[in-house]
Each structure stands twice: as structure tokens, then as C-alpha cells.
Amino acid sequence: MSDPNDSSTGGRTSADTADTPDRRSPLPETSRRGFLQAAGATAAVASVSPLILNAADKAGSKNPIMGEGAFQYEVISQNWGELPSHIPWGETHGVAVDQAGLVYITHRSNAPEPVDAVVVFDSLGKFVRSFGKEYHTGGHGIDIRKEGNEEFLYLCSTRVGIVTKTTLKGEIIWKKERLLETGKYDDPKTPYSPTNIAFSPDGGFYIGDGYGSHWIHHFDKDGRWVRTFGGFGSQPGQFQTPHGQWLDNRSGREPSLVVADRANARLQYMTLAGQHLGFLTQDADGKSGLTSDVTTLKSPVSFPAHFDIRGDVLLVPDLHSRVTLFDGSNRVITHLGYDPEWTRQVLGTDDNKFPVRRDRALWQPGKFIHPHDACFDHSGNLFVVEWVLGGRVNFLRHVS
Q1: How far is CA 314 from the centre of its chain?
Q2: Is 364 helix (H, G, I), strand (E, B) or coil?
Q3: Which position has the higher pLDDT, 23 or 21?
Q4: Predicted local distance difference test score (pLDDT) of residue 5
Q5: pLDDT digits (tens, 9 = 90+) for 55-100
Q6: In Å, how far are 34, 246, 317, 354, 378 from 314, measured between CA atoms?
Q7: Which of 262, 276, 217 is nearest to 373 (CA)?
Q8: How far is CA 358 from CA 50, 128, 153, 347, 369, in A?
Q9: Closest C-alpha to 47, from 383, 400, 375, 367
């Protein structure tokens, strides 16, 4: 079987393999997750999932705890949300929380008849509504931005190849398709498959063509194309699967764009105008910094997928079975769920790739398989959605 991340391909042409993790070493307000930085946030979310992990059962066992110090999380549920029978989960790809605490999850279903690709739950996991049959087979990136007094969803559909801005109930305000204005897709054979959106401070946004031709496209607040940067490669300013990107405007920083340069196994910082700043690296003592030397890079991530920020903490879901938290200096706080032996099992062998994601009998309580997206809720708890057959939503309660 060929490796869909092999650099000789020059880019993917099929979204069917786009999420395949390889086995390399390891004026608007803010986004969906920006609301979660506000003081006086709502009460903690409780799970009403049909699967609650051994909450101090008769044998005295307790729910697994991930993390350390002030960043410990209790695994409350790994099957969160009361999904209605008419919507079978596909691979769960994106998660966002609105100002009211509603949880929005995108999934990629292969059902023969179109099903809604966006499912909304209340903070207790009760089903609220669903929509988005037009994204069927491609439900992927999702983020929320408050503009004036209203919140809007920004959605990416990979196989369908569209990006939309919608109301919280899914009514489409605008839709962008092949982005011909960029000049990068004049040849109809050039792949285009958008994965995630990031927001700029001036109201504009960035579309990452993560599963297509590895470009990032910058648009202004009126949706007009500004510039394109990146493209396929491993050198500074180039990407192999820019799967997610995020505005890093944490206190004390010059606002910049951080990119989950996934198949290059690194986080790459760019200016808001798309100029390379450096790759995140760490020394033997865990001290972080930026480098442009790809030969000496010591990346603290393995296969990064996307981002969230709460206060000065940067959250990075990693498809290699962990979720990483960085402090304001980009020093690793903790790799939630990291277990090298478990990761080896999850990634499998050349003859049996990724066996765990498709066999629920192999799943273990308190272990991640392939975290594809994650975000904080208003109380600092975590939602983690995973690229596994049949989907999976994890709820982790912050306990320290």
C-alpha cells in the first residue's frame, strides 16, 4: 500500500486517505474557542453519555486521569453525546463551542444517503439539532466567530471542496468553492480540499487547502482574496498538509499564524502576511524557540492536526494518540495521553496500518487513538474528537 503522505506524490488527490496518519517520529471577536477565555464563564459541563467510565465503581476504581500539576483532566466519557438514531457517526473531525455552551461537531459519513454533517448538543450532551447534508462525506473543519452581536459558523467540507459561513442553525450566508481568484486552480486537475479556517484580527480569514495542494489563502473581512502562500514542500514557508492554522495572539506576542504542518511533523509560525517566522523547536531541557533550520529541528509535536487557545495555553490535538498543551512561552506543559507503546499499537505496521481505529475491541479506557480536533469549553474542560470508524467524542473534566 502506498503512503498517502509520501512527498513524491506532490499532494493528495483523494480525500479518502487525507486523514491517514503516517508513522514518522515523533472586527470580529475571537474564534469558537475565544469565548472560552472570558471570565465568569458558565458552569462545568457534565456528561450524560451512555458510556461513563467507572466513576468510583464498587471495585473502587476511578476514571482515568490525564496530565499533571495544574493541568490534570478526568476522563468522564469517551462516548459523549446522545446521538439520535437517524444520524450514525462517521469519522468525527471537528468540534466547537458557542457562547451559550452548545457543542457543534462535524463528522464525515460514508452512508449511501446524505446525512447531516453537523450535529449540535447542549452542554449536558442532549441532542439539539443537526444540519448540513450539503457537506455529506466531507464534514471537517468548524470554528465560530462573534461578529457584532451575532455568532457565525465557518465550515470546511473536504470531499465536496467548499467553505461556508453560516448562522448557528446552518443557514448559508456565503459559500466559496474552488477559489479560482487565487490563480492556483486554473487546471481542473489541480486538487483542492479545504480542511480548516483561521481568523485574522482585522476580520479577515485564512483557508487552508490541507488535503489538496498545500496552500493557505488569505481573504479580507469582505471575503475578497488578498494573497496565497505556502505550497508543497519541506523548506521554510512550505507545507505538507497544512491541516489547521490558528491566530496566536496570546498576551505578550506579536500576533502571528501558527500552522499544523502535519505531514512535516511540525508547527510552523508565519506572519499575518504569510512570511515564514520559524518552526517550533525544543532543546534537551524542554526550552522552546523558533528555528528555520530543518536539519536541527527538534519538533515537540508528532502529527499535529489543529489548535485552540485558552488564556496563555495553546492546545494541539495530535493524531498520534495524544493532545499537547503548551504554555505562553510554547514550552510543553504536558502530552495528554502519551504512551509510546500504545502509540505503536495504534499506528500498526506496514502490513497492518492503524488497526486500532477500526476495531473497537482494541480500544482502551483513558487512551486516545487519533485526536483530530479538540477545544476547551467555558470551564476549561476538554472536548476531543477522533478520526476513528464510527466516530468518537471524548469529554475530559479539568480537575486541577
Answers
A1: 12
A2: coil
A3: 21
A4: 36
A5: 444 455 799 999 999 999 999 999 999 999 999 999 999 999 999 9
A6: 12, 10, 10, 27, 15
A7: 262
A8: 20, 28, 30, 12, 10
A9: 383
Residues 233-254: what's their mean pLDDT? 97
pLDDT of residue 16: 45
Please check the confidence at residue 33 and state whether its pLDDT lies above 80.
Answer: no
**Cβ-based neighbours of 27, under 8 Å, separated by 6 or more:** 147, 202, 203, 221
Mean pLDDT value across residues 253-270: 98
Give the number of residues written for the chain: 400
Residue 2 has pLDDT above 70, yes or no: no
For cell 471524548, name the residue: 394
- Strand-pair partners of 151: 146
- CA 128/CA 44 separation, integer angstroms: 19
Contact between 99 and 151 under an 8 Å Cβ cutoff? The reply is yes
Which amino acid belongs to residue 19?
A: D
Is-contact 94 139, C-beta < 8 A? Answer: yes
What's the whole-model pTM score? 0.89
* Amino acid 14: pLDDT: 39
From residue 51, give the alpha-carbon distance in Å to each of 65, 368, 394. 16, 15, 10
Task: Round the CA-based radius of gyration of the chain to a whole number and report it.
Answer: 19
pLDDT, average across residues 128-150? 97
- Residue-wise pLDDT for 195-208, tens only, equals 999 999 999 999 99
Compute the distance between CA of residue 221 and CA of residue 223 in angstroms, rounded to an integer.
Answer: 5
DSSP state for residue 43 in the 8-state scheme: P
Please give the Cα distance from 127 to 149 (Å, whole number).
25
94 contacts: CB under 8 Å, gap ≥ 6: 104, 105, 106, 139, 140, 141, 142, 196, 306, 372, 373, 385
Distance between CA 143 and CA 389 in Å, rounded?
23
Pairing of strands 172-176, 162-166: antiparallel
**pLDDT score of 273 more than 80:** yes
CA distance 394 to 366: 10
Other C-beta atoms closer than 10 Å to the C-beta of 157 total: 26
In 179-209, which positions are buried (b, 16+ CB within 10 angstroms) versus exposed (e)?
beebebbeeeeebbbbbbbbbbeeebbbbbb
Say how far apart CA 23 and CA 198 lie, in whole Å: 27
> Does residue 360 carry a pLDDT above 50?
yes
